[in-house]
Design goal:
Blueprint: H1 6-14, H2 18-24, H3 29-36, H4 38-48, E1 51-56, E2 60-66, E3 75-89, E4 92-97, E5 100-105, E6 110-114, H5 118-123, H6 134-137, E7 140-145, E8 150-158, E9 164-172, E10 177-178, E11 184-187, E12 196-198, E13 201-205, E14 211-215, E15 220-224, E16 235-241, E17 244-250, E18 254-261, E19 268-276, E20 285-293, E21 297-305, E22 313-321, E23 326-333, E24 341-346, H7 364-378, H8 382-392, H9 401-410
Antiparallel strand pairs: 1-2, 1-24, 2-3, 3-4, 4-5, 5-6, 7-8, 8-9, 9-10, 9-11, 12-13, 13-14, 14-15, 16-17, 17-18, 18-19, 20-21, 21-22, 22-23
Helix pairs in contact: 7-8
Pfam families: F-box, FBA_1
GO molecular function: ubiquitin-protein transferase activity
Organism: Brassica napus
C-alpha cells in the first residue's frame, strides 16, 4: 500500500467505516500517516457526518444514538448503570457514571475516569444517589485543543449571593483538579444552557442575556455584556454556527438565527436568517423544541399524541438543510423517550488525544456501562468491547487513581 498514490489511498479509506479506520491506524506507519493527514481527517469527518446521542436530562440507564442523523438506524442500549452525558467535543464524550466523571472516545476505546472535585461535592452537582442537579450540570464544560491534542474539563462555580454572582473556576487537565486565581463578580444571573467552546474559550449564556467567557489559555474570565434580541421567544438554542456564537429563537411560525458580532468591542446579536417553522398539525401537537444546530443543519423535535392511543405519543425529528433551504423528516425516536431528553451532536473521531492512553481505574460496573456506550456508537457488541478492555488491562494494574499518582511521582 506504500506505493499507492495519496488520492487513491484516501478514496479507499473513505469507503471504510470509522471503527475499521481506527483499527487500521495501528497496523503500520504508512496507514497511520495517511489517516493523520489533515486533508483526510477533515474530508473524512465531513463524510461521516454528525450523529445524535440522546439521553434523559435527569439521567437514564437507556441511551440512544442516531448515526449520521439517520433514524432508520437508530440504536438503543441499556447502559446498565444510571448514566448522564454532560458534553461532547471533537469526538469525545463527557459522561457521569456511578459517582465518577469519565472522558471517552468510543471509537478508539480510550478513556479516563476522574473523581469529583471538592467544589462539585460541596455544591452538590451530583448527589450520593447519582442524580445530577440539572442547573449545576450547565456549569460543566468539555474542551479539546486541536493544536495540543489535549482535553480539559472546566467547572464554573458561583459562590456569590442571591444578588451577586461570584464565579470561580476549576480545571482538570488529565490528572487532577486545580483552581486558577481568576474570579469574576457581576450581577446575579444563572446559565441558561451548557457552555459553547470557541477560540480557546468556553462561553456560558446567562438568563439576563450576558455571557461569561473563560479563556483556557490565559485562564482569565470576563463578562460579555450582551442583550437578547428584541422579541426573543422561550424556545432558544445557544450554540456554535459558521459565523461563531449563534443564538436561535423560535415561534410556531418562524425560527430566527442570530450571530454574535464585535465580541471584543461592542458585542451585538445580528440577525442572519429567518426559517419557516415546519410544524404541521398544531392541534395534535403536545410539545416541540429546538434540539441542535451546527451551522449547516437545524434539528427540531415534535411530540404529538397518537390518534389511536391518545395516552401515547409519537416523536418526530425534522432537519432543516441550510444549503437547500428545505426541511426533511429525519424520522422518529422511541416512544419511551421523555420530553426532557437532551441531544448531543457527536462526530466520530479516530484522532489521538493526550491523556486518554491510560485506563484507570478498573471497576466492573463502570466498565460494563462504558463498554455498552462504546458499543452503541461503533456498532459492536458490548460483551466484545468489555472483553477487549479487560485484555488491555495488565494483571497488575488494578489500582486506584491515588496509587497511580504515587507511581507517577516515583517515576
Amino acid at each position: 500500500m506504500d506505493v499507492l498514490p495519496r488520492d487513491l489511498m484516501h478514496k479507499i479509506l473513505f469507503m471504510i467505516d470509522h471503527r475499521s479506520v481506527a483499527m487500521m491506524r495501528c497496523t503500520n506507519r504508512s496507514l497511520q500517516t495517511h489517516i493523520n493527514d489533515p486533508y483526510f481527517k477533515s474530508e473524512y469527518s465531513s463524510r461521516v457526518g454528525s450523529g445524535l446521542v440522546h439521553i434523559s436530562a435527569s439521567g437514564s440507564s437507556y441511551l440512544s444514538y442516531n448515526p449520521n442523523g439517520d433514524s432508520r438506524s437508530l440504536k438503543t442500549k441499556d447502559t446498565l448503570k444510571e448514566s448522564h452525558i454532560l458534553g461532547s467535543c471533537s469526538g469525545l464524550l463527557l459522561v457521569f457514571i456511578d459517582d465518577r466523571l469519565c472522558v471517552v472516545n468510543p471509537v478508539t476505546k480510550k478513556f479516563r475516569y476522574f473523581n469529583q472535585s471538592w467544589f462539585m461535592r460541596f455544591t452538590g452537582v451530583f448527589s450520593h444517589t447519582g442524580v445530577v442537579n440539572r442547573g449545576n450540570k450547565k456549569h460543566i464544560g468539555l474542551v479539546v485543543d486541536r493544536t495540543t491534542k489535549s482535553f480539559k474539563i472546566v467547572h464554573m462555580v458561583d459562590v456569590g449571593t442571591d444578588y451577586e454572582s461570584r464565579y470561580k473556576f476549576e480545571i482538570n487537565g488529565e490528572n487532577s483538579w486545580r483552581r486558577p486565581k481568576t474570579t469574576l463578580t457581576c450581577l446575579s444571573s444563572v446559565p441558561l444552557k451548557t457552555p459553547v467552546y470557541l477560540e480557546r474559550s468556553l462561553h456560558w449564556l446567562r438568563n439576563d442575556g450576558s455571557i461569561v467567557s473563560f479563556n483556557l489559555e490565559t485562564e482569565h474570565a470576563r463578562l460579555i455584556p450582551t442583550s437578547f434580541p428584541r422579541g426573543l421567544s422561550l424556545k432558544t438554542l445557544f450554540t456554535l454556527g459558521n459565523n461563531g456564537l449563534t443564538l436561535i429563537s423560535a415561534t410556531e411560525e418562524y425560527i430566527y438565527v442570530y450571530s454574535l458580532e464585535n465580541i471584543l468591542r461592542d458585542p451585538k446579536w445580528v440577525f442572519v436568517k429567518k426559517i419557516q417553522n415546519i410544524m404541521m398539525d398544531k392541534k395534535k401537537l403536545s410539545y416541540w423544541n429546538l434540539e441542535a444546530y451546527n451551522g449547516k443543519c437545524l434539528l427540531l423535535r415534535e411530540y404529538r399524541a397518537k390518534e389511536e392511543e391518545p395516552l401515547f405519543c409519537d416523536q418526530v425529528v425534522h432537519v432543516y438543510d441550510l444549503s437547500t433551504n428545505k426541511w426533511v423528516v429525519m424520522g422518529s425516536i422511541p416512544g419511551w423517550c421523555s420530553v426532557n431528553h437532551e441531544f448531543f451532536q457527536f462526530t466520530p473521531s479516530t484522532s489521538y488525544v493526550v491523556g486518554l492512553d491510560e485506563i484507570l481505574p478498573w471497576a466492573g460496573g463502570r466498565i460494563s456501562s462504558l463498554s455498552t456506550i462504546m458499543a452503541l456508537i461503533d456498532g459492536s457488541s458490548s460483551e466484545k468491547v468489555e472483553k477487549q478492555l479487560g485484555k488491555d488491562q495488565p494483571d497488575t494494574v488494578f489500582f486506584s487513581e491515588q496509587s497511580a499518582k504515587k507511581k507517577r511521582r516515583v517515576v
